[in-house]
User: Which sequence fits this backbone?
């Protein structure tokens, strides 16, 4: 694309977009015509923020730009873009009083400006998306009002000019730049009963999640994909250092082995399932160096005290703590 004067990049530290990007990469790899809707900027009160991504295709709809009231019209235009290979633009403005009582009234007083990007018109974009999902680096999108597009992650980029509809709204110097940090990574050591609820919750919040379990009987019970690995091997095979490791074998010896393997690893958040007494018993068997290495990063018992008992309540408490930690939100007193 033609390089225009530099403008500030809109950083998207956490848009929870991993599922959308996964679906987009799979559709592109399969040769399916899909369009990626990108929120370029917003004003006022809106359901989505700058950097939100939604994928539309013939039989595909992943993500949301509203509570559902705006999607039909966006989807119609997105399909037209996928078919024609043209860039589309949309401005959805509900700041006027009359918008409160229109046919698709949302009750919000805000404005969203969208880019409709036909991914099938960008050969090689699946490689960019897959690199971002693997955590190889941030993904950056530069687009200008004339149809110039550059999307890249790490050392891979697609740079192309596409036919474009007329952009009906202004941008500083006619250029937008957005950058998404890679999705956070969680490794669950142990396929206990909490995994059934915790795995889809974290995935829905944008995490990349792996589960490792060395016991065949526990793997057979799990409703999600589980790698047949012990803790040390799972950590060694990780494509990148996980942001979070959850030790949840429901087995004292396996949890002890996991803590020993985690001590030298620079994982910033380590969660241990079970009561305080169990944690103390495990720590009493660890070498001093391992205890000192683990202590600043260990959350035990893991999870916020939300009340309730059983696997679903525990999964909810863990997901809430990870969401709070990820966004640097202080825990309630």
Assistant:
């Amino acid at each position: 694309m033609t390089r225009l004067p530099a403008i500030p990049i809109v950083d998207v530290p956490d848009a929870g977009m991993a599922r959308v990007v996964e679906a987009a990469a799979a559709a592109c790899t399969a040769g399916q015509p899909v369009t990626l809707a990108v929120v370029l900027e917003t004003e006022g009160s809106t359901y989505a923020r700058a950097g939100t991504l939604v994928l539309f295709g013939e039989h595909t709809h992943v993500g949301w730009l509203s509570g559902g009231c705006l999607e039909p019209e966006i989807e119609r235009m997105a399909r037209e873009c996928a078919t024609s290979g043209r860039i589309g633009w949309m401005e959805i403005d509900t700041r006027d009083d009359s918008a409160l009582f229109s046919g698709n009234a949302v009750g919000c007083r805000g404005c969203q400006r969208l880019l409709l990007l036909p991914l099938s018109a960008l050969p090689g974009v699946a490689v960019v998306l897959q690199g971002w999902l693997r955590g190889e680096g941030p993904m950056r999108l530069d687009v200008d009002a004339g149809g110039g597009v550059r999307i890249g992650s790490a050392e891979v980029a697609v740079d192309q000019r596409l036919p474009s509809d007329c952009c009906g709204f202004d941008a500083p110097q006619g250029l937008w730049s957005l950058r998404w940090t890679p999705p956070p990574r969680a490794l669950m050591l142990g396929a206990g009963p909490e995994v059934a609820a915790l795995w889809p919750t974290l995935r829905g919040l944008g995490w990349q999640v792996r589960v490792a379990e060395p016991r065949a009987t526990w793997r057979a019970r799990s409703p999600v994909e589980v790698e047949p690995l012990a803790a040390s091997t799972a950590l060694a095979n990780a494509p990148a250092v996980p942001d979070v490791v959850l030790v949840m074998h429901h087995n004292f010896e396996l949890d002890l082995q996991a803590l020993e393997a985690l001590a030298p690893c620079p994982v910033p958040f380590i969660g241990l399932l079970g009561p305080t007494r169990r944690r103390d018993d495990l720590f009493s068997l660890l070498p001093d160096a391992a205890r000192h290495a683990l202590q600043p990063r260990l959350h035990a018992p893991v999870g916020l005290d939300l009340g309730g008992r059983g696997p679903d309540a525990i999964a909810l408490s863990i997901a809430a703590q990870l969401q709070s930690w990820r966004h640097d939100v202080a825990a309630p007193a």
User: Anything to note?
Assistant: Confidence is low (pLDDT under 50) at residues 97-107. The longest strand covers residues 34-44. Residues 59 and 233 are 39 Å apart (CA to CA). The radius of gyration is 23 Å.
